[in-house]
Model the fold of this input.
Amino acid sequence: METKLKIALQKSGRLYDDSVKILKECGIELQNGMNKLLNEAMNFPMQILFLRDDDIPQYVEDGVADIGIVGENIVYETNKNVELVEELGFGKCRLSVAVPRNENYADAQFLNGKRIATTYPFLLQNFLDKHNIKAEIHEISGSVEITPGVGLADAICDLVSSGSTLFSNGLKETEVILNSQAALIGNKNLSPEKQLLLKKLLFRIQAVKKAKKNKYILLNAPNNKLDVICSLIPGMKSPTILPLGIEGWSSLHSVVQEDDFWNIIESLKDNGAEGILIIPIEKMVL
Ligand code: ATP
Ligand code: MG
Done:
């Protein structure tokens, strides 16, 4: 029987769309109309289990799933014995402490003797221990942000991304305990066959991640400026240079990092580059 890699994904919620999308970008297509809890890839030896995100590390530790996609916040909070294989670049958020906006918060010692509501008791306790703070942790399962307003807590420890939920509940963020994003985790005792499948998947994920960080750039340049322009966009090995139909001009093709392409574009224009096109890259293998 063919070995299949079992991956656990969040059944619904913030990570669902991006988790399915990254598989798709890796060329892995799920079957339509299958049962909502278990799916099978059409073109990769993979089964997909859909679970509550909190349960994913346990399933991966037990080997019920071989790998999973889950927020690092959940990985560290559940503290299961799993391998953190690769960060995936989506689901970014931070686990933070917040207090009512009108409080005079100087530093973490403010939290001494206070009641803090959270769904992350383990990570919060670690933070408090590290800072020698004695506080009362109130573990609740949701709507943490309303607890100070109704007098159930003096502070909260919760996930934040934009901060708008904190703001609309009259809270201010005072400490960041953990920066988190979605990650691929794996069981620590995968069979050699499964390790090979994971390696294949990881190779594809890394190609997709690299492509997202880079753009394909095309431009026209006067031949007497080719040297400068090539040094600005060196690309993977060197830019491709093709003659244009007009005497004295060439077309350059290369790859630039998303992070600094605006700076590069300025210098390119200063050196006579024209007709600059920036195009997304789908996969990138170095
Ligand atoms: P489940 O029903 O699977 O238990 P959930 O309600 O616990 O879902 P979601 O709210 O869907 O979880 O969040 C899933 C993950 O998305 C979080 O664990 C975190 O890693 C990430 N995330 C990113 N931004 C935020 C945010 N602003 N608030 C909460 N989670 C966020
Ligand atoms: Mg959950």
Summary: Residues 10, 13-15, 52-54, 71, 73-74, 91, 93, 159, 161, 180 surround adenosine-5'-triphosphate (ligand 1) (CB under 6 Å). The chain has a mean pLDDT of 96. The CA atoms of residues 119 and 140 lie 6 Å apart. The first strand starts at residue 5 and ends at 10.
